[in-house]
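From the pipeline queue, job 12 of 40. The input is one protein chain; the requested action is below.

Action: predict structure.
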Amino acid sequence: MTPGKSRYALPARERILATAHELFYRHGIRATGIDRVIAEAGVTKVTFYRHFPSKNDLILAYLEHRHRLWMDWLVEALERHRGRGRGTATRLVAVFQEWFGGEGYRGCAFINAVVELGGTVPEVTEIAVRHKHEVTDVIARMLPESPDLQDHALAITVALDGAILRVQMEKTAESALAALATTLRALTKG
């Protein structure tokens, strides 16, 4: 969304998706009913169901939307921190510290969605797995070539997921970031 632009200025489909994105991430997918999305998006039920025939359709669109937003942010944040002469481990910790300290941080939307719905909506797990693969690919591009490149990139992604969950549980990022830094330095040799 363009800064300063009201969500209500968006076309109906985008407004519904923006509203669902905010509510699903903040409150959880199961805890957020369609009626609340409709009310907060300022659309009618007919309009909602024309764009999203079911809540599952909205959930999948939300995850795809979140994926694009988050990946764009990750790549931009990594690039922004590159210019500060930081090594891979330090850059990743700085980027995740930024995210963890952001307003409304509630963990990884994909992990949360799998926990909530992975057993009942298999497409949720498919999107989450694809998201994590793409995160791993971004990390792999940061690492020096080696026979263990993919293994190290995956290990870093798993370490990041652990830090994400730790911050969610502890409501503070300090210990998770310290442990993450230790792990990343060992995996990236710096």
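Job complete. The chain is about 75% helix and 0% strand.
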